[in-house]
TrEMBL record:
InterPro entries: Erg6_SMT_methyltransf (IPR050447), Methyltransf_11 (IPR013216), SAM-dependent_MTases_sf (IPR029063). Gene3D superfamilies: Vaccinia Virus protein VP39 (3.40.50.150). This is Methyltransferase type 11 domain-containing protein. GO terms for molecular function: S-adenosylmethionine-dependent methyltransferase activity. PANTHER family: GERANYL DIPHOSPHATE 2-C-METHYLTRANSFERASE, ZGC:194242. Keywords: Transferase. Residues 21-120 form the Methyltransferase type domain. Pfam families: Methyltransf_11.
């Protein structure tokens, strides 16, 4: 699946979200796509700031520099953000890099406003334990990351045989 097709799928699920956080933003491809096509403020978070220069350069090129901001930080400890600040959080091709998913989801729940959405797109495998580093979850185990007391799962679907999309609400 081309990134653009995935980005369209993610954008369709943002609803009325105005203040959006993209976790694992890297070089800002999704941040910039969302800023350009929704006109909304996008904050990118990445554990490494190496791609931020490219992200800002792209934002200027597509004329959305005031809508894109990149912040260096860890999804498991997002002390740089206040509670209940974001309307939506996206994670594209990022969850499999997270060491402590429960801690990360707890932090995401903390920074999401009530009614806020978490949109995750990530690689999956058919069976547990048979994948590479990028294929850490199967569809069932990925959906189990959302116990009722954390975030409520609204949607879970396969976009491709090895790519799942999940949408949860706080």
């Amino acid at each position: 699946m081309k990134d653009r097709v995935l980005y369209i799928e993610i954008a369709k699920r943002l609803g009325e979200a105005e203040n959006i956080l993209d976790i694992g933003c890297g070089e800002g491809k999704l941040c910039n796509y969302l800023a350009k096509h929704t006109g909304r403020k996008i904050t990118g978070l990445d554990i490494s700031g190496m791609g931020f220069k490219k992200a800002k350069k792209m934002a200027h090129k597509i004329k959305v520099p005031s809508l894109v901001e990149c912040v260096e930080g860890d999804v498991g400890n997002m002390i740089c953000f206040k509670d209940n600040i974001f309307d939506a959080v996206t994670m594209a091709y990022t969850l499999h890099h997270v060491n402590d998913e429960k801690r990360a989801l707890s932090e995401i729940k903390r920074i999401l406003k009530p009614g806020g959405r978490l949109i995750i797109a990530d690689y999956i495998i058919e069976e547990e334990g048979k994948g590479s580093e990028c294929h850490k979850f199967n569809f069932k185990t990925m959906r189990k990351l959302f116990p009722k007391e954390a975030l409520s799962l609204l949607e879970s679907k396969l976009l491709k045989s090895d790519l799942a999309l999940l949408v949860a609400i706080k």
